[in-house]
Amino acid sequence: METFAALAHGMAVAVQPMNLLYALTGVFLGTAVGVLPGIGPALTVALLLPVTYKLDPGGSLIMFAGIYYGGMYGGSTTAILINTPGESASMATALEGNKMAKAGRGGPALATSAIGSFVAGTIATIGLAFLAPWLVDFAVRFGPEDYFALMCVAFVTVSATFGDSPIRGLTSLFIGLTLGLIGIDKLTGQARLAFGIPELLDGVEVTTLAVGLFAVGEALYVASRRHHAEEQIEPVRGSLWMTTEDWRRSWKAWLRGTMFGFPIGALPAGGAEIPTFLSYSTEKRLTKHPEEFGKGAIEGVAGPEAANNASAAGTLVPLLTLGLPTSATAAMMLAGFQQYGLNPGPLLFAERPDLVWGLIASLFIANVMLLVLNLPLVGLWVRLLAIPQPWLYAGILVFATMGTIAAKPSVVELSMLAGFGVLGFLMRRFDFPIAPVVVGLILGPIAESQLRRALAISLGDPIVLLQSPMSATLLGIALIALLAPFVLKGLGRFKASED
Amino acid sequence: MTESPSSDLSQQPRSQRVDPAGLVIAFALAALAAVLVWDASRLPSTSMYGMGPEAMPLVVATGLGILAIANLIDALRGNLPPRESTDPKPVLLILGGLALLIAIIGLGGGFILATSILFVATSAAFGRRAILTDLIIALVMSTLIYLAFDRLLTLSLPAGPLERLL
């Protein structure tokens, strides 16, 4: 079994003491930042990117794995204790989790979410380890036109198919694509949309965009509507531990959540929102305690949490094997790779197997660390939640600008950060999704260069896009996915019915 | 804090009033498309096979143009999601803090001073009035961050008068 050998090799890389330390640091920092209200995993990764600037690629990616998982766990803690999910994937968790916390069962809610994340993360990482080599074998035969078609599918699913409004999702995507055009065209050396500003020639930095949209935008948005409501932190009362009854009710929900999360995450279908809500409604239907739903049913926390984690591991499948980010967090991970000049995809598996398999192995390790670190430290995380809002957001903005100052301390770059903050504020105010902008910025230039490569090979004949069966099929899927939401307007209805 | 946008899908009213904000959005998208077309038109078209550098901007501009029309229709039908009132003061305060930070970094005032000003401005935007206390907290915090990043991680953060004292 080739996979076992590769994974064993990866384990050998990941358990080196230095790498273990990186993983531990990543998990700790990721949780500490992710637990802050309003900060989702994508922003956690973006904010912590500067910490990894000086590390070697291997250590840095291992730290990323820890930050990624830690950020997600932190997000669910926030969702349970103050009902402010930092991202849509934690919304389902907040529904029952916050009710449990209000009923004095915050401890078991956090425990089922931590253990469920561990179970789901482990199963999904095994899935990733077995699916990845198979997909890589498949992907090495991809021509540039196939990659282009694949990216079209990702564009459409991320922005249009699963959002609330395909028009607003596509608008976000095209803003991202526009930003992706800025800078020197790699094939001809022509400057596009640079307006004579030298700093723009390098293009828009993904971290600047993400931190501006997510951190600065969120701070502006929350500040602008501070007069509406104050949030409330539920103290963790009573026992932290789950009773036998809790275990009995949780384990099936964890497994079912994983079954929803991993495949949907692994398809380029954009994000964890769908599997978490599917899991929530499934648990609600199958439960033997329907009277508890809406009042704090533990299955309603266990399932969505598992689905969320499994889908996060699932999104690593297209990211690592095809270089295709399908969520804002995955886009940030790709940015992390790119800072070392590494491009995830089939070639990376062949050229740097130590790196890829070390990363996959460290996902297992990060998962174990989360479990042993977070249940005992839950008191510390709760205290982080209690930071007064003015200091919290002031601190977030200091960290947000620090990342940019550390990377490029220029007036232009910082002005762009502020400008993206205003954009993020306006998009929140008018209900445009943020993730498609980030995905558009990072995938747009890649899609363009694949398309141009395909057309250069075919001497400019666009029929090449339809001649490859793969590319023709994928473009067909993209078209269907684009038109589907207009045809079936009620795709989001199951979400509304759960409220 | 924020209620998630999609969770109030069910009670979304379908008002028939034209939303001026929607018109502005549609106009901004159209203007962006125009900028793309203008910029692409300056690029010398190459005689390469396939697509030149000007092709993709034109594709994106077309998309933006279509979306401008779609957003315009949404706005005319009053289909924009409902939104709550906002208070512009804190937003301007934070943006002012950011502007000061940019100016201080640009003029060589250093990391500690710049981020401390941003900290105080943001904290004031969120309703704190104890400016002196916040300033002390900010100075201590940004000094610690500076030392951690500059000494431990050897990342160079811009140094000004305060940093040279360390």
What does this entry show, briefly?
Chain A is mostly helical and 499 residues long. Chain A is built from 22 helices and two strands. Chain A has one domain (2-497).
Structural features, described:
The complex is a heterodimer of chains A (499) and B (166). Chain A has 499 residues and is an all-alpha fold. Chain A has one domain (2-497). Chain A has 22 helices and 2 strands. Chain A has helices at residues 2-14, 17-34, 41-48, 57-82, 91-102, 106-139, 144-161, 166-181, 206-224, 244-266, 273-286, 299-322, 328-338, 346-351, 353-374, 378-385, 389-407, 411-429, 435-457, 464-467, 469-487, 493-497, and strands spanning 183-184, 191-192. Chain A has a two-stranded antiparallel sheet with strand order 1-2. In chain A, a hairpin with a 6-residue loop joins strand 1 and strand 2 (191-192). Chain B folds into 2 domains: 14-76; 88-165. Residues 1-15 of chain B have low confidence and may be disordered. Helices cover 64% and strands 0% of the residues of chain B. Chain B has helices at residues 20-42, 55-76, 88-106, 111-125, 131-152, 161-165. Chains A and B meet through helix 8, helix 9, helix 17, helix 18 and helix 19 of A and helix 1, helix 2, helix 3, helix 4 and helix 5 of B.
Number of E-type strands of chain B: 0
Can you list the strand order of the major beta sheet of chain A? 1-2
What distance lies between the first and last C-alpha atoms of chain B, to the nearest angstrom?
39 Å
Low-confidence stretches of chain A: 491-499
Pfam family, one (chain B): TctB
Transmembrane segments (chain B): 20-43, 55-73, 93-119, 131-149
Keywords (chain B): Membrane, Transmembrane, Transmembrane helix
Organism (chain B): Bradyrhizobium archetypum
List keywords for this structure.
heterodimer; A: 499 residues; two-stranded antiparallel sheet; 2 strands; globular; disordered C terminus; B: 166 residues; mainly alpha; 2 domains; disordered N terminus
